[in-house]
Amino acid sequence: MRRDLVEAAQRGDHEAFEVLATSAGDRLYAVARLILRATDLAEDAVQEALVRAWQQLPTLRDPDRFDAWLHRLLVNACTDQGRQLRRWSRQVRPLLLDTAIADDTGAVADREQLERGFSRLKPEQRAVVVLHYYSGFSAAEVARMLGIPEGTARSRLHYATEAMRAALEADARLPAVAHDRTA
Amino acid sequence: MSTDKQVADKISGWLEAEAPMRLPDRVLRATFERTRTTRQQRGWRALLGRMHVNRLVPMGLATAAVVGAVFIGAQLFGSPGDGGVGGAPSATPSPTAQPSPSPDPSVAAPSSPADGGLPVGSSYVLISGGGVRGTVTVPAPGWFGGGGIMTRDNVDPPAGAGMITFVGEPLYVYGDPCDWSTTKPETPATTVDELVAAMAAQASRDASEPVAITVGGYAGKSITLHVPDDAVFSECDQGYFGSWGVPSESTPARYHQGPGQIDELWILDVDGVLTVIDTAYYEGTPAEHVAELRAIVESITFE
């Protein structure tokens, strides 16, 4: 059924494309929001990825690879937001615990430190982290999705994971402090 | 020190908690407003995209070229030739179908050779749709195929070559290929004669006199059209010099790749299904490439 929709959309059936885009929208938005850490940029990235998907659908070789292909377009769109992201980062610190769930102090501290570690990663490293730890893709799948060598994907994942581990362990060594946040 | 699994679990849990639940509806609405008025990459561009696996195609070509259309040899069937490529066309076209050396090729993907091109001597289903299936034989290395199209490396000026097919689709032949948006007819052409007459009447095309032909055992007509050498595409509607449209696309389905392009068309009635084989090249296209186009056309067999 899904393949049928993809093939119809490839032939220019806009209604089929709307079905596909609507069903993928929430997942794409979550990935974009996690990578970019900014709601407005994530919305723009999703929109741009979907427009590119519509334009480029006839070039998709294997309709069964639609989801992976769409994620690739999304990550590229997120990367394109890099300049805006850097500008944004200078003005606004990342959203963090403004909606902190009441849980134990350790978990709250973990979140703070994970956020801090994640915010230091480059967008391409964040993409690998999100696609692996949130979307559940393997390093090999992420590599295919992003069009990078598997070794590169593994390297990015390793570096990012270690950076976040270091952030967590820094938290374990130091008492949690209230960080100045604006968002 | 945390174990790898502990770290992974913490990262996963944190991302899950941070992820937003829903994409705002307004984003999708804005997206669809854009896509409804945005054309998809079609024809040569689409095939070029599919050719990305061809690592031997020079990168500059792969990134810069609008995929060249392989133009099935109208000259082969005696259309008035003015391109000067490959010699004068046959006066009485009668392409002879050749037996296919292999039984049933893949329709979609370029295959086998390391460059991603179609294997020489293999059969290739060029025409598929509307109950019509037409197979050709690949005459030489360097041909790529996909989606009813065959090309050499590109169809761009000054020397590209390629062919594109339209099967069973209503075709709206524009009155003026440059002012196509305002000269689309109310009704499409549905017969060989209607289509040929509409093409012959197009502005600025210097159309040849239609010639009766037989291809793969089916009767039809051929006609040759030209894109004027002095055509300025940027001055045309949305930058397209387009011959005709189809219902599913808001911009021309057959748009041209540059001034001087020569289109030789074989228009057939295949058991009641209007079938168009559009071959294109330029005066600068190597003679052997035009000869290969002709060989491809000669080899067409319908099932």
Task: Explain what you see.
The complex is a heterodimer of chains A (183) and B (303). Chain A starts with a helix and ends in a 10-residue tail after the last helix. Chain A is built from nine helices and no strands. Chain A has helices at residues 2-10, 14-36, 39-56, 66-80, 82-91, 105-119, 123-134, 139-146, 150-173. In chain A, helix 4 (66-80) crosses helix 8 (139-146) and helix 6 (105-119) packs across helix 9. Chain A has 183 residues and is mainly α. By secondary structure, chain B is of the alpha+beta class. Chain B has one domain (4-95, 107-302). Chain B is built from six helices and 13 strands. In chain B, the strands form three sheets. In chain B, strands 3-4-5-12-11-8-7 form a seven-stranded antiparallel sheet, sandwiched between helices. In chain B, a hairpin with a 2-residue loop joins strand 1 (123-129) and strand 2. The longest helix of chain B is centred in the N-terminal third of the chain and has 15 residues, at 4-18. The N and C termini of chain B lie far apart (69 Å). The model of chain B is unreliable at 50-112 (pLDDT under 50).
Q: End-to-end distance of chain A, in Å?
A: 43 Å
Shape of chain A: elongated
Q: Which shape of chain B, going by the Cα principal axes?
A: globular
Q: How would you write the strand order of the largest sheet of chain B?
A: 3-4-5-12-11-8-7
Helix/strand-derived category of chain A reads: mainly alpha
Low-confidence stretches of chain A: 87-103, 175-183
Number of domains of chain B: 1
Largest interface: A-B, 44 and 43 residues
Secondary-structure-based class of chain B equals alpha+beta
| C-alpha Rg of chain A (nearest Å) | 18 Å
Share in helix of chain A: over 70%
Summarize model confidence as the mean pLDDT of chain B.
76
Series of secondary-structure elements of chain A, N-terminal to C-terminal:
HHHHHHHHH
The oligomerization state is heterodimer
Query: What kind of sheet is the major sheet of chain A?
Result: none
Strand content of chain B: 15-25%
Taking all Cα atoms into account, the compactness measure Rg of chain B is: 22 Å
Q: What is the distance, rounded to the nearest whole angstrom, between the alpha carbons of the first and last residues of chain B? A: 69 Å
